[in-house]
Amino acid sequence: WNENSHEWDTLCMPMRAGAPGSKLIVTTRNEGVAAVTRTCPAYPLGELSNNDCLSLFTQQALRTRNFDAHPHLKEVGEEIVRRCKGLPLAAKALGGMLRNQLSRDAWANILTSRIWELPEDKSHILPALMLSYHHLPSHLKQCFAYCSMFPKDYEFDKDALVLLWIAEGFLQKTKEAARPEDLGSKYFDDLFSRSFFQHSSQDSSQYV
């Protein structure tokens, strides 16, 4: 960035308003960025403990922090969580995918999928996240794939995206006489619940 650029000015704006003694925390997945910006050694975040990862997973899948109300899912659920290797995004995505599915067979199908065997260094995608996409219904895959035209970190409006889906003819006709906007909103909410979309950190009314 040029120090006279608009982007640089936007970046520095909070620093000009900070009180004396304020500190900035920079988070990044890129060690090169950390090396450029740090004034103290980088602090690598570790994985979640198995118990914390399990709690996050069950909160997403069962709306509870344990398997007490669903003992038939406990063994297979714990094995799925072990395969998440303490990664919160993987636990959240898989939990969202299994939300409201109380069939042990459905959970076992996730556990025995061959996608877990795909080497991460070949796919560049966490197996758990690829699995989450693989198990999307075809109509949701189409809607999500459409979003690849947005640049990284692009903020968008839910209603505007639904209208784009409608214009492309992505919404399946149902027996119920639902408005296309309502059906598109349901598609969006399904993708949101599976962690494919999230609220923007800059504007809670927008999504990324």
Automatic annotation (TrEMBL):
UniProtKB keywords: Plant defense, Repeat
GO molecular function annotation: ADP binding
Gene Ontology BP terms: defense response
SUPFAM superfamilies for the chain: P-loop containing nucleoside triphosphate hydrolases (SSF52540)
Domain NB-ARC: 1-63
Entry annotated with the keyword Repeat: yes
Disease resistance protein winged helix domain location: 149-204
Highest taxon listed in the record's lineage: Eukaryota
Name under which the protein is recorded: Resistance gene analog
Gene3D superfamilies: Winged helix-like DNA-binding domain superfamily/Winged helix DNA-binding domain
